[in-house]
Amino acid sequence: MRTLAVLPSRFQASRFPGKPLALIAGRPMIQWAWEAAAGALGVDAVVVATDDARIKATVEGFGGRVAMTDPALPSGTDRVAAAVELVGAGFDLVLNLQGDEPAMHPETIAAVVELMRSDPGLPMGTAACPFSTPEELFNPNAVKVVTDDAGRALYFSRSPIPYLRNSQVFQADFRPWLRPEQLAVFQRHLGIYAYRPEALLRFTQLPPHPLEQFEMLEQLRALAAGMAIGVARTAHLSLGVDVPADVPAVEALLTRRRQ
Question: How do 45-50 and 66-68 pair as beta strands?
Fold first, then answer.
């Protein structure tokens, strides 16, 4: 199974202009993401999909490959699909690895590839890790996912799901307290997606869904259309960077891994 990893990367992020080139522990953010993909078992090729010459120059400077895509594309997934067309056929699986996820672990990427290899009927795949603190659970930027007994996603949300009806967590004071066995029920979704090429094409042809627009979670478009999403479990947390204030936490996570 030949696998292509695509890293969509835009310079003009509204909350953090130039984000892909921001330094994370001394290296550009996009380089961290590229190295994670390139070092993952089962990934055959890596390409950065961008519309910006500065990102192109940086990626090529550290030896990466670039596909220049239309700046008018509406989403990162559309940029991934455009990159696949530019790179050419010959891949059985396409990974969408967010360019602003510099802490994505190569073992997580490999786990998603293995999930898709072991279940040929899955059109899409992603990953989830445990929550480490109750405070994370109540952070809307930490997306939650619930799965069925086969490990396929039932729903993704920015709200804590499932709802613990008999827990003091959900009383009026909204105090973030959970017993360890309760916290273990929750899964934290990570920003990685795998698509069969035909599933990627179908997804990009679907219109936005109201659930997607309410939660601002693109993957809900696929679930609403009946597309199954398998969820690989991983022990490795990955943190995205939305604003400059997110950088120290990512640097701390990467530092802990190297110790």
Answer: parallel
